[in-house]
């Protein structure tokens, strides 16, 4: 079973609906018992970074403990951004510190629209399990104004091009993150979620 962390921010229910659609057993919860018993955890989110971190509250420590124990963790959008050390969105905010890096604004000086909203091509990294079986390039749906500057050199990274290389996805051991929304990325996004379920069940 996959537990989707319930902290009343953004797209938690839509992620559960996508998991239901692919037949993946899941539960929306922030209870310690559920998190400890889960095969894997998804941390979604659509909100400003600071608001999301505050809303996560005491569940943050449960997520950190689960990830440090080796349990697969997938962060989506702001849930992905919270995996890093900090963010400068609407002030300085501390993240979960699971991956070395910092969340900063997308550059607004390149004639591109910010926030970045819509479909963009992701250059798939073959070493990342979450893209198992996919083509070299896939289109995903993005909605964000900030992006992560990754400082962990051992992490595997996939990029999209939006006025330059922007990190679209990351893998550090059992910790996965995607800036895009797999639950809004049609069949390709559903395949991302299927792959995460396989990872949780030790089938990848």
From TrEMBL:
Pathway: Amino-acid biosynthesis; L-histidine biosynthesis; L-histidine from 5-phospho-alpha-D-ribose 1-diphosphate: step 5/9
GO biological process: L-histidine biosynthetic process
Domain Glutamine amidotransferase: 3-196
Keyword Lyase: yes
Keywords, alphabetical: Amino-acid biosynthesis, Cytoplasm, Glutamine amidotransferase, Glycosyltransferase, Histidine biosynthesis, Hydrolase, Lyase, Transferase
Matching Pfam families: GATase
Top-level taxon of origin: Bacteria
Record-listed E.C. numbers: 4.3.2.10, 3.5.1.2
Active-site residues per Swiss-Prot or TrEMBL entry: 77, 181, 183
Annotated GO MF terms: glutaminase activity; imidazoleglycerol-phosphate synthase activity; lyase activity
Catalytic activity: 5-[(5-phospho-1-deoxy-D-ribulos-1-ylimino)methylamino]-1-(5-phospho-beta-D-ribosyl)imidazole-4-carboxamide + L-glutamine = D-erythro-1-(imidazol-4-yl)glycerol 3-phosphate + 5-amino-1-(5-phospho-beta-D-ribosyl)imidazole-4-carboxamide + L-glutamate + H(+); L-glutamine + H2O = L-glutamate + NH4(+)
GO CC list: cytoplasm
Location(s), subcellular: Cytoplasm
HAMAP family linked to this entry: HisH
Role: IGPS catalyzes the conversion of PRFAR and glutamine to IGP, AICAR and glutamate. The HisH subunit catalyzes the hydrolysis of glutamine to glutamate and ammonia as part of the synthesis of IGP and AICAR. The resulting ammonia molecule is channeled to the active site of HisF.
Subunit structure: Heterodimer of HisH and HisF.
Name used for this protein in its record: Imidazole glycerol phosphate synthase subunit HisH
Organism: Limihaloglobus sulfuriphilus
